[in-house]
Every structure is written in C-alpha cells, then in structure tokens.
Amino acid sequence: MIRNLIKNKNFCYLWTGQLISSLGDRLTQMGILTFVMVSSQDKGDKMALITFFGLLPFLLFGPLFGALVDRYSRKNLMILADLARALLVLGIPFIWANTHSVLAMVAWFFILGTFTALFTPAKMSIITNITDKDLLLQANSLIVTTGMISTLVGTLIAGTLIKATGARMAFYINGLTYFVSAWLIYKIIYQSPEQPVGQPKADYGVILADIKSGLAYVARHQLILQLILLSCMFSVISSFGYILILNYGTTILRQG
Fold it and tell me: Among residues 126, 141, 124, 138, which one has the least CA distance to residue 7?
C-alpha cells in the first residue's frame, strides 16, 4: 500500500512539502520562545498568550474555512496560505526588533494562525482528490505519522541552529520552507470534481448554509462529536503541559 502511495507523484509533492514546512514550523516555535521567554525573561504567561491566539483561529474560523475548502480550489487556497505564512514568518524578526511588544506578537501570530487554519482543512481534503479511495487511510496515516516525526526532529534541529546562529535565522529558514511547500503544491495536478448542475454560486448565504449543514451533521452523529470533543480535550491538556514544561525549564532548571 505504501509503495503505491510513493508512486503517486501528486501525493509525494504534498507529503514532501508538509515534511519540509513542518520542520520549519519548529524553527519558528523555538525562535519565538527565544525572543519571548529567554530575551524577555517570561515565566510562561506571555508565551501562553501567544500560543492561545495562534490557535484561536481554528476555533473561530474552522467551520468557515471548511465551507470554503468545499467550494473553492483546495490547491489555490493552500498556495495562498503558504505564501502568506512565508511573508508573516519573515516579518517576525523585524516586528520584534522594532517593538519588543508581546501584544504585537499576539496579533501577528493570530494572523499567522488564521492562514494555518485555512491550510489545514485544505490539506486534509485534497488528499481525497489525489489518492485512490482504498488508500485514503494509509495516506492520512502517513501524513500524520511523518508529521509527528518531523516535529520531533525539527525541534532538535531548531534548538541546535538557534544556539549556533541566533533566533533570526530560524525565521528566515521557516519562511523559505513555506515557499518550497507552495512550489511543490503548485506542481500537484488533479481533476477537480464537477459541480452539480444548478448548484448555487458560493455567496455568503450559500457558505452560511454549508456551515449550518455541517454543524447539524456533527450534532446528528455522536461518534464524530465525541471525536471532536476528545481532540479538544487533548489540545487543552497538551497546551497546559507545554507551558508548564517551558516554565519549569526556564525558571527552575534555569535552562536557555
């Protein structure tokens, strides 16, 4: 099964792009930690605020972006999100150098998180366009599993790089990874599904109707609702532990 996925050029473009950008994400994560927690002697509350607002767009705009992904080109939305994130990440060192404002970083990461929240459903949905139905489970598993591996490896690489060159270089490299991801996604070629005859155009009313329909579907299917709630609980617990570990490392163990 995995061999068939590897032979799929479109899937390989997506897979490779996500591995590279996932590695880059860890650079930004460690870079902002260096700016806020080390340079500003933050005990965790400021970093918690940045993390919260970086993830908030998933809650606020998730249903909207899900509807957009169903109505517009998933490939184009992913390219747009990657290019926007590249520019935003490249701007972080300049914003911090000129303001040293945590509030500015909160706003910046909220915008960055918004484009990530747009990219994520498009990425998961486009797999159905470029992969055979009998390989969907393997494709999703491979994307998620290798993403976790790249997160672990990327964290080690980011720490080493920042220690050697400083935090600025981490943001520059992450910006480059987003450009690479956008280029690989651009190379994906797939046949978009034909829209049903008479289907209304994607105006505000139609998108709102799509959101209501999706929420009603979740409400009717308890298993899906339970999975969503479980995912939310896991995110809350992991975020709580994440900030505790950072605080313990910097204030108690006095590590950089």
Answer: 138
Q: Distance (Å, rounded) from C-alpha 87 to C-alpha 81?
A: 10
Q: Cβ-count burial of 109 within 10 angstroms (0-12 exposed, 13-18 middle, 19+ buried)? A: buried
Q: What is the DSSP string of 88-136?
A: HHHHHHHHHHHH--HHHHHHHHHHHHHHHHHHHHHHHHHHHHHS-GGGH
CB-based contact 83:179 (threshold 8 Å)? yes
Average of per-residue pLDDT across 129-142: 85
**Residues 250, 256: Cα–Cα separation, whole Å:** 7
* Number of residues assigned to the chain: 256
Going by the DSSP 8-state scheme, the letter that residue 251 receives in this structure is I
The percent helix, strand, coil of the chain (3-state, each to 5) is 85, 0, 15
Q: Return d(Cα 130, Cα 101) in angstroms, integer.
A: 43
- Residue 166 sits at φ, ψ, to 5 deg, of 95, 170
Is residue 21 within 8 A of residue 181, CB to CB? The reply is yes
**pLDDT tens-digit readout, 200-248:** 556 677 878 888 888 888 889 889 889 988 988 887 787 777 777 777 7
